[in-house]
Amino acid sequence: MSVLIAIASAHNTTTSIGQRIATRLATHIPGPVVVRAIAEIPADGVSPYSAVIVGSAIHMASWLSPARKFITHQRTALSERPVWAFSVGVPGTEEYAAKETEKIEAEVRKSVPALRGHTLFRGRVEREQLPWPVALFFKWFPKGSQFGDFVDWEEVDKWADKVGEEMKKETEETR
Ligand SMILES: Cc1cc2nc3c(=O)[nH]c(=O)nc-3n(C[C@H](O)[C@H](O)[C@H](O)COP(=O)(O)O)c2cc1C
């Protein structure tokens, strides 16, 4: 099984998480796992792969525009292979995290109805990444958020292990 991990990232945290997932997946499945920025994926860029993971940073409670466009434009190719997704944000409360996860997943499912799984990972945000008016209001939106690095690499590994096992099963069933 060959896997494409398609990434939309503004400040690299989503890319680092995608790379970590790739390393972990390689311990479960034999084929290549390739991490690429969505901006660099050509129109027919999904076709060489048998599975896809799409990852995007969250801005204003939605995926970045390249990720939203990717799942719309690649809708047909994505319907022909198993697809998983992850979002990276810094929701300040568990309650808001659940809401944000649910909202984004519903949006993704409009283009990828058979989505195998989606999760939200905590990311990293620093004051200088935000325009000052946004920085001023950041603790209220997304609710309760703080500046800092909240990436939980163990959680990333756990999710990658779960997806890796699902991919492995898929390969065994289609053999
Ligand atoms: C302009 C801006 C808006 C953001 N809006 C949200 C948001 O609505 N919800 C959220 O959970 N995180 C939000 N974040 C936090 C980012 O999703 C988080 O920093 C993530 O790690 C970014 O990943 P990246 O480094 O790959 O760009 C925002 C960050 C920025 C810079």
UniProtKB/TrEMBL annotation:
UniProt domain Flavodoxin: residue ranges: 4-132
SUPFAM superfamilies: Flavoproteins
A GO molecular-function descriptor: menaquinone-dependent protoporphyrinogen oxidase activity
GO terms classed as biological process: heme biosynthetic process
Highest taxon in the source lineage: Eukaryota
InterPro entries listed in its UniProt record: Flavodoxin_dom, Flavoprotein-like_sf, Protoporphyrinogen_IX_DH
A Pfam family hit: Flavodoxin_5
Protein name per the record: Flavodoxin domain-containing protein
